[in-house]
Structure formats: structure tokens, C-alpha cells
Amino acid sequence: MYSLQFTSEPSSYPNGLLERDFTVNGVPGVLWSPLSDPADRAPLVLMAHGGGNHKKHPAMSGRAQRLVSGCGFHVAVIDAPGHGDRPRTAHDEAEIAELFRARAAGEPEGPIVVRYNDHLARLAVPEYRATLDALQELPEIGADGPVGFWGINMGTAIGVPFVASDPRVTAAVFGQHWPDALAEKAAQITVPIEFDLQWDDEHISREQGLALFDAFASTEKSLHVNAGRHKDLPRFEADSAVRFFARHLGRPVSSSAS
Amino acid sequence: MYSLQFTSEPSSYPNGLLERDFTVNGVPGVLWSPLSDPADRAPLVLMAHGGGNHKKHPAMSGRAQRLVSGCGFHVAVIDAPGHGDRPRTAHDEAEIAELFRARAAGEPEGPIVVRYNDHLARLAVPEYRATLDALQELPEIGADGPVGFWGINMGTAIGVPFVASDPRVTAAVFGQHWPDALAEKAAQITVPIEFDLQWDDEHISREQGLALFDAFASTEKSLHVNAGRHKDLPRFEADSAVRFFARHLGRPVSSSAS
């Protein structure tokens, strides 16, 4: 059995979301849901946060707001290993120190990020599978509904091997990562994807970004490139991702999210 | 003076659009407008149709429907030289015959299309300028409102030199053309653009499509790539273009178009 435990009282928010903290096998997560009748099943979107970030970062709660209020979906995020409410290992500390050293020295971050994210993904993929197992036992989600995945940056490093290995995920939004550790897994993914990259990314070259997009086997795949540097991904791409999930998970976007 | 003449009685349609045929200096066009008080000024989107196509092709009227009903904009298209209600010259006939010959022989169409579209663009750019001059004299459009341009394929061959030469255009959607005759003009364009290309285009290589996108000087530019061949551009890219114009020309998209 998957030990889903809700660890907070359900708290309702002025923005109309039900927020519930949980753990699955000790991994802390958050589930955002519409304030509707629990008997009304709705699709689930699993999200993965970026590196150095955590499950309730505003980028996560902002996306959840759009997906829950706009589409009536459930949205869940878990902390990645070494992130958020989870302890760092000596290996985490060493890799983070190495990243900061390279950054300060003006050396490329890519080789370190690729290697460290690959390490974290190997730990996180079974955690995402167990989280999905557990959440699908909730009556308001269920085991036969559509499931989306949304993760950019480190969220893509975790999401590509997760989606490649889990046929329950039927649509995914990825972006902004190097192809090195991911292209082979991407070639196993056939569900519709939307993929974001930045045209002037100072870390990921155009060739690297395009190579990862190219690697997906999906017959329905869209690439959204925007002018700007790594951190300049425009906010309207979050709205676009919400419409992508609305198209593929089968709920129209209400005007409040359009 | 620019001789705008309405050549049809205004006809209203069940879909809520006012459609008026017009000519400017003898060039036939169509203006689609909301059924609102003419004193309410609204932004104008000029569109250019694709090769072998005409001003009222369903691709044009479908986009107009989205822009007028969804955003309250005016939308105008004129027939390109040798297209729609305009006569073909001997040069048009010869180029079209050459295109069909190359197609039947399995030769690349690109060199012929690039050359012929460049010829047509040289004729069409002053026609677009005159049309804009004339339409801006209508009280419901006016001379100081924002103006968008939307043209894919041949519409991009005409639109890139037009937008490069006319500072009244403040946002544009382009796509699906070779860079050869256009990259230099694109480098003069600084307004926000959205650009579509197809990842498996049998006529325009990835390198050619990306090179044209790269050439624009705009600091706000978005590239939308979709898996599929030349004619497979997904319909949801029309919705995306409408939202792009809503963002940049300053009208929210109503839920009916989202």
C-alpha cells in the first residue's frame, strides 16, 4: 500500500483553492483541488519544481491557481530529493557547492546541472510513481482519469524519465534542459507535449534545446521559443500550458484563466 | 487621396460580423467589423492570404471571426496581385506553370516560390500601405489606433517588407517562409512578433525556418513550432495568434474565442 497521509487540515483560500499537505512514503507533497463536490472526479496534473526551489514556490502555486480555478483540475507537487522540507545529503551539499563554485568562476553550469539532476531524477521517478498510485486512490481523482505532467528545468530532468516510464500520463509540458541525459528517454515518449525554450539562454544552447525537443517521439508536439535569457520565460507560457492541458485532459478553460 | 469605395451593401451575418467589400485604387478587399456603434473605435488587423488563395478563403474568414467576435477588432484583407478577383498577367501564368512543372517533376518548389512571392510582394506592399491609409480615414478605425498584421506563407512574403516599411504596424504574426528574400527586411522589424513553423515541413527546412525567425530584431518574439508537414499547421495556432493580438493591441479575448 502507498501510505498517503494528509498532514495538514484542509485550508481553503480566497482564490478558491483547497490546499492539502500530504506525504507518500515520507515524501512531502501538496495537493490543490477545486472546492467542489468530492464525488465530481477531475483530471490530475502532477508538477515538478525547478532546482533550488520547492513544492510551494510561487511558480508552483501560480500554475496551480490557473489549473484549478481555470479548468477544475487537481494539481499535486512533491519536494524533490534534497529540496524543500527534505534533508540534503552530503552528496547534495557537494554538488551544490560545485555548482556555486563553477558559477563564481564563470565556468559552464551545464555539466554539473545535467549530472546532479540525473542523480535526483533517479530518486524522484519512483517517488512520482508512488505519489500517483496514492493520489489515484482518492475518490475525487480515481484510477482511470487523464493525468498531465508539467515540469520545466529540473522538473523536465525528473519528468522526462517519469513520463517515459508511466503510461498513465497522457500529456506533458517540458522545457529548458540539456538533451544529454534525457534524449534517450524522450524518444520513448509518444503522448502530446508542449516544450518551452529560451532563444538567448545563457546556459542551454539553441542546438541543445532544439535537440531535446526533436528527440520526443510524440506525433503531437509543440515548441514555444521566446526571445530572452534563461530566466525570462514569459508568463503567458504558463497560460499556454494551461490551455494545452485543457485541450488534452478534456476540460475547457474558463474565461477567468484565458 | 486614397479612393476607398465600398462595393457591396453591408451584410450582417449570423456569426455577428459586419462584412463590407471595398476597393482601394482598384484593389479589391474585404473589411470585417463588429456590429457595434461606429463611434466606438477599435484596432485594425490587416491580413494577407496565402499563395493560390484569396481574401475570403475560409482561413481568412475564420481568423476574422475569431478577431472580430473575440476581440472586437476590425479585420481587412486585400487580394494579392494575380489572386482572387484580380487578373493574372502573363508573368503570373508563367511562374505558376513553372511551379506546377517543378512539383510534378519532384523538384524543390522553394526557389520558384521565393522568387515569385518576392515579385508579388513588391507590388503588394504599396497596396497594403494605401489600404491602411484609406481604412484609417474611417471613423470607426481612425489614424491613431494600434494596427496588427497577420500573414503566413505568401502572407509573410508580403508582410515582412510591409511591416518593415510601415511604422503604424505595432504587432505581427508571420510564419512558414524561406529566409532568402526576407531576412534583411526582418532585421528592420522591432515590433513584437509571433512566428509559426512546421517541424517536418517538406518544403522549408528547419534551418531555413529558424533562420528567418532569428533574423527579426524584435526583443519580444515567440516561435511556435509544431510537429507535422507544411499544411498541418494546427488550428490552435490561430487561437494563439488571436491572443497575441489581444495582448498587444489591447483588447482582452472574450471567452467565446478562448
Sum up the overall morphology of chain A in one term. Answer: globular
Query: Mean pLDDT score of chain A, rounded?
Result: 93
**Portion in strands of chain A:** 15-25%
Assembly state of the chains shown = homodimer
Distance from N terminus to C terminus of chain A (CA atoms, Å) equals 40 Å
Biggest interface goes to: A-B, 25 and 26 residues
Highest-level CATH class of chain A: Alpha Beta
* Total beta strands of chain A: 10
Radius of gyration of chain A: 17 Å
**CATH architectural grouping of chain A:** 3-Layer(aba) Sandwich
Low-confidence stretches of chain A: none
Report what the structure shows:
- The structure is a homodimer of 258-residue chains.
- By secondary structure, chain A is α/β, with parallel strands linked by helices.
- Chain A is 37% helix and 21% strand.
- Chain A has 7 helices and 10 strands.
- In chain A, strands 1, 2, 3, 4, 5, 6, 7, 8, 9 and 10 form a 10-stranded mixed β-sheet that branches.
- Chain A is globular and about 55 Å long.
Describe the protein's topology.
Two copies of one chain form a homodimer.
Chain A: E1 4-6, E2 11-12, E3 17-24, E4 27-34, E5 44-48, H1 58-71, E6 74-78, H2 90-104, H3 110-135, E7 147-151, H4 154-165, E8 169-175, H5 183-186, E9 193-198, H6 206-215, E10 221-226, H7 236-249
Parallel strand pairs in A: 5-6, 5-7, 7-8, 8-9, 9-10
Antiparallel strand pairs in A: 1-3, 2-3, 3-4, 4-6
Helix pairs in contact in A: 1-7, 3-4
Considering the chains and any ligands shown, give keywords for the structure.
homodimer, 21% strand, alpha/beta, 7 helices, 10 strands, Rossmann fold
